[in-house]
Amino acid sequence: MPEMHFHVRWPDGREESCYSPSTIITEHFTPATDYLLADFVARARAALDAGSERVRLRFGMGCAQAMNQSAAIAQTAADFPPDATVTVLRIEP
Predict the structure, then answer these.
(1) Could you give the CA distance from residue 1 to residue 61 in angstroms, rounded to a whole number?
(2) How many CB atoms lie within 10 A of CB 7?
(3) Could you give the CA distance from residue 89 to residue 60 in angstroms, rounded to a whole number?
(4) Crossing angle for the helix pair 37-59 and 64-77, to the nearest 10 degrees
(5) Where are the domains of the chain?
(6) How many CB atoms lie within 10 A of CB 5?
(7) Are residues 31 and 90 in contact, defined by beta-carbon separation less than 8 angstroms?
(8) Would you tell me how many other CB atoms lie within 10 Å of the CB of residue 76?
(9) Has this prediction a pTM greater than 0.90?
(10) Which residues lie below 8 Å from residue 77, measured CB to CB, with a gap of 6+?
């Protein structure tokens, strides 16, 4: 499956490269777009769950790296106020 990375800028200005196990991430995010924190976390969770499911269907087990990435996003998001924004900078293979 084609791995993807979506690069984000957190509300404190820190940039991070996040992992997705499939191209499904492009169905949930648009590059160069700001998302309210809760929306970003929900979209990331949905995309990473769907990507993990694609891996499960193909290989018989979900993608632990996708689930770890989802948990890491939720943990980082907890450090910011709910009205903060996260920018998806770009998405690339």
Answers:
(1) 13
(2) 15
(3) 32
(4) 170
(5) 4-35+44-92
(6) 14
(7) yes
(8) 19
(9) yes
(10) 37, 40, 41, 86
DSSP-derived pairing of the beta strands 85-92 and 4-9 = antiparallel
Per-residue pLDDT tens over the stretch 15-68: 999 999 999 999 999 999 999 999 999 999 999 999 999 999 999 999 999 999
Looking at residue 80, its amino acid is: F
pLDDT beyond 80 at 1: no
CB neighbour class for 6 (10 Å; exposed up to 12, middle 13-18, buried from 19): buried
Query: Sign (positive/negative) of CA torsion 17, 18, 21, 24?
Result: negative
Whole-number Å distance between alpha carbons of 70 and 62: 13
Task: Give me the amino acid identity at 9.
Answer: R
